[in-house]
Amino acid sequence: MRAGPEGIAGVKGENSCVLFPTEAFRVLKPGGRLAVSDIVALEPIPATLRTDFAAYTGCVTGAASVAEVEAMLQAAGFADVRVVVKESSRAFINDWMPGARAGDYVASADITARKPAQDCCGNDCCAESDRARPASPCRQGSA
């Protein structure tokens, strides 16, 4: 979940960190599950990596921390949010950028969450059906 072109699902722009979780929540049916893999920050990214083009294209520069990923998904309305860091990924991440030690700062993670079975408003618009549902009125205007 990054603000760069390599972000989850190709979402980009200054609001992409908020946009992806909210849009994923919007399109899932109640009870639906989200499962993605992404690069997460384990330590603050040093300036030398933040300005390195290879780090940018390698998903290192804009990586969100585990706490930020969890907070974004929870703010969008997801429950049962889990971010499982794959420590073994740090070695091959170091191979992406020899000498930069990018694996000291980021790792791959499996990210899962669930949309609650009942949307927050309890209106008919939240019920599961085969027809297209309008956006939940209780979520309109939220960030």
How would you describe this structure to a colleague?
- The chain is α+β, with helices and mostly antiparallel strands.
- It is built from 5 helices and 3 strands; from the N terminus they run H-E-H-H-H-E-H-E.
- The protein has helices spanning 16-27, 47-50, 53-57, 66-76, 89-96, and strands spanning 33-41, 79-86, 106-114.
- It has a 3-stranded antiparallel sheet with strand order 1-3-2.
- Helix 1 packs across helix 4.
- The radius of gyration is 17 Å and the shape is elongated.
- The chain starts with 15 loop residues before the first helix and ends in a 29-residue tail after the last strand.
- Residues 1-18 and 125-143 have low confidence and may be disordered.
Number of strands: 3
Instruction: Kindly report the spatial arrangement of strands forming the biggest sheet.
Output: 1-3-2
Helical content, roughly?
25-40%
Q: Over all CA atoms, what is the radius of gyration?
A: 17 Å
Output mean pLDDT.
76
Low-confidence stretches: 1-18, 125-143
N- to C-terminal distance: 16 Å
Q: Oligomer, anyone?
A: single chain
Count of runs of 4 or more consecutive helical residues:
5
How are the SSEs ordered, and which strands pair?
Layout: H1 16-27, E1 33-41, H2 47-50, H3 53-57, H4 66-76, E2 79-86, H5 89-96, E3 106-114
Antiparallel strand pairs: 1-3, 2-3
Helix pairs in contact: 1-4
